[in-house]
Amino acid sequence: MAIFTDPIREHADFGPGDAEWLHLLVGDWQMVADLAFADLALWFPHPEHGYVALAHVRPSTSHTVFHGDFVGEGIRSDLRPLVDKAWESRSIERSSETSWSSEMALRVEAVPMVRNGRTLAVLTTHMDLSSSRMPSRLELTYRQCAYDLLRMGTLGLWPDFASPTGSRRGAPRVGDGLIRLDAEGIVQYASPNGVSAFRRLGDGESLEGRSLAEVTASLLKDRRMVDETLPLVVTGRMPWRSEIESRGVSLSLRAIPLRDEEHRFGALVLCRDVSELRRREMELVTKDATIREIHHRVKNNLQTVAALLRMQSRRMVSDEAKQGLEQAMRRVATIALVHETLSQGLTQSVDFDELIGRQFRLSAEVASPSQQVKTERSGSFGELPSDLATPLALVINELVTNAVEHGLDGRTGTVWLIADRTEADDGEEITVTIADNGVGLPDKPYTEGLGLQIVRTLVMSELGGSIAWLPRDGGGTSVQIRLSLLDK
């Protein structure tokens, strides 16, 4: 999440890693907002506004106290003294009076985020106190956890650069389940969702008062498949993530060690049941493997057909029949090449530059076994979907063959393949040019052969593009194909 603007960077006197540390904070502070049942705002000094709001997060465990977005705006006059005090003292400051906003009683705390002995920003928490009911044990525990994390922020101990905060699929959140451990790894408190998660793994007893490491070890059936980071996560010793699987249930775990200036006094363990996510991922992996296998088998079958055509052509007495079978063999081999490429990847897109690079030279050589033909390629096709790659490869194969056989007409010459992929109003557009320096276009009308009929049909029907035959500057022929890649 980007939290700095250019004007802020001009006034920020950050050392190495300071900006990244604040980014890490904003990437992980949703957890603190959920634990504190409070809105969080991050403030940075500004010469005109006193302080400017860099970021704001709302809790998912409670309603927000700020319905409007104030990021980029200056600080309120009544809040500035508290933020000033926290900036100077480098300790958590709480407002001495309860403030009222929109008929809501608020308790505000200012927490300086200190790193390497320097205050980098001030985080404020805004909690609604208007509810008259007594807070539950869950709420009290959550708020204590939030305070411990913010206290670590004033010491530069949290966030930890070793803690993963990326959008890894199945990352646990506070509402998914929270377990608080003491320094020895004994469970002090487990939220109802946390207890339910371990019950689904097969643990039928209460978690409180037990070692989470021993509970987890008793649930493991095949210890050869255990993640090596699991022991350090379930004891709360390292800020890492791990996963445990038992009885068909997968549980994602994340540990956040709690420390002060001298030692580690506990840890938070967030847990989430990711069984359904892992099942769907396995289905996708299975489907991907099936699709790749299908492409592989289609490629093998097409290569078999090409081999049969080659064998049949050798038995032909007529040169015309032999040439027709050889052309059919080349077309089948071109389609097989696309399926071979698809069988090696995880997507249904083709790196067309790699594919056509092999085919372009081969097409010219096969079409001109007795003459010297030079090939030159420029531009880039990029990634193309398979439904476009197959007909386009066939079209290029036919046009290169036609350029060698009829354009150069037995002479020594050059065939060019030029790709130009550009942005268009409705997506992207590709212009493909196949040119030669041969005899040029005929003066009188001519009859299209099977190859050019295939080209025209594929370009118009399959590719939805246009094709034009033009004289080439300097002599020869230039064939230009235009087709659109519409945004999906």
TrEMBL record:
SMART domains hit by this protein: HATPase_c
InterPro entries documented for this protein: H_kinase_PdtaS_GAF_sf, HATPase_C_sf, HATPase_dom, His_kinase_dom, PAS-like_dom_sf, PAS_4, PdtaS_GAF, Sig_transdc_His_kin-like_C
A biological process (GO) of this protein is: phosphorelay signal transduction system
List the protein's name: histidine kinase
What species was this sequence derived from? Arthrobacter ulcerisalmonis
Xref: SUPFAM superfamilies: ATPase domain of HSP90 chaperone/DNA topoisomerase II/histidine kinase (SSF55874), PYP-like sensor domain (PAS domain) (SSF55785)
Classification via PROSITE patterns: HIS_KIN
GO molecular function, one example? ATP binding
Keyword Cell membrane listed? The answer is no
Enumerate the spans annotated as Histidine kinase domain.
Answer: 293-487
Arranged from A to Z, the UniProt key words for this protein are:
ATP-binding, Kinase, Nucleotide-binding, Phosphoprotein, Transferase, Two-component regulatory system
The EC code for this enzyme is 2.7.13.3
Enzyme class per UniProt: transferase
